Amino acid sequence: MANAQQVVNISTVSQVPSAGLWMDAFRRLRKDRLAILCLAIISTYSLVALLAWLGVIASDYAAIGPDSYAAPSAKHFLGTDIFGRDVLLRTIQGTRIAISIGLVTSIIAIPIGVVLGAVAGYFGSFVDEVVVWFYTTVDSIPDLLKIIALSFVLGRGLFSVYISIGFTTWVGLCRLIRGEFLKHKERDYVHAASALGASHTRRMFVHILPNVFHIVLINFSLRFIIGIKTEVVLSYLGLGVEPGQPSWGVMIDDAKLELARGVWWQLVAATVAMFFLVLSFNIFTDALREALDPKLRNTK
User: CA 241 to CA 229: how far, in whole Å?
Assistant: First the structure.
């Protein structure tokens, strides 16, 4: 009876630092004004993307007008393109595509990385060797080449961008989760859960995963940066979304021919919109990592 009570106490105590870590991270993050500003910018982009997706704003982005290559003015704040389409409306719709790519590719890549990394790190032995061999083989091919190859097979379109990015960018997270599970599976709270009869699945995803979930959150933020930048590269190479879609990559690709005419506003609109979103994600991710990583927290 005493041993059982001791095991329960070990299991209970192990959960307290986890909750305290999250509260402490939230307080630290709240004090970082730059991080809060970046979070506000990201939230604004997300709201704009949601409203554009619902058709509340920028729904007539494809409307062709008579003012071809009109310079920025009170009528068209960011000018027009060759077809007289408003560049501001296209930039807003590009935000919708960028946010959707970051979100969907994260939803695809993160579960793959977490499950494979958890299984490899927890079970070890032959299972670990198979998973390590698999992600090492996948990682031996540069990500851009894998993405381009999948895009060729699937064809142009938003769906192929989701698949090609989501199924090729999970290796880094898998490595991190595997390493963390290798460390945590030998700790007292996991042994306590095992003594209480917890199954392997419960020990992996109920006991260990919450203690390494900060890595998943940080990686989720990084996914957006990878997805947005990769889509721009693919669209510039002619392998991304359809030509009619107003993504930032398509706008930059169109602008390469417009610069010879002195038409710079479409290039500036797309690059500035992408710059602020990527910069905000970079700064916020660094602040989130510092707030959630216990090693970095203890050095300050």
Answer: 13
Amino acid code (one letter) for 176: L
Check residue 10 and give its pLDDT: 42
* Tokens matching residue 244: 């009619």
C-alpha 110/C-alpha 108 separation (Å) is 6
CA–CA separation, 136 and 88 (whole Å): 43
Task: Specify the 3-state DSSP secondary structure of 1.
Answer: coil
- Note whether 42 and 103 are within 8 A (CB): no
Residue that has been written with the tokens 């991304």 in this structure: 240
Beta-carbon count within 10 A of 296 CB: 11
- Phi first, then psi, for residue 233 (nearest 5°) are -65, -45
Q: Residue 118: helix, strand or coil by DSSP? A: helix
Q: Is the dihedral of CA 109, 112, 117, 118 positive or negative?
A: positive
Torsion 237-146-112-155 (CA) sign? positive
Residue recorded with tokens 């991710």 = 285
pLDDT of residue 119: 92
Per the CB < 8 A criterion, the answer to whether 96 and 52 are in contact is yes
- Distance between CA atoms of residues 200 and 50, nearest Å: 40
User: Does residue 141 sit in helix, strand or coil?
Assistant: coil
Measured from the Cβ of residue 283, the count of other Cβ atoms closer than 10 Å reads 18
pTM (global) more than 0.85:
no
Cα 102 from Cα 230, distance rounded (Å):
10
The distance from CA 153 to its chain's CA centroid, rounded to whole angstroms, is 24
Report the mean per-residue pLDDT for the chain.
83
Q: Which residue has the higher pLDDT, 25 or 226?
A: 226
pLDDT bin (cut points 50, 70, 90) of residue 22 is low
H-run or E-run covering 5: helix 2-31
pLDDT in tens, 35-66: 899 999 999 999 999 999 998 998 888 888 88
Q: How far is Cα of residue 167 from the mean position of the Cα atoms in its chain?
A: 13
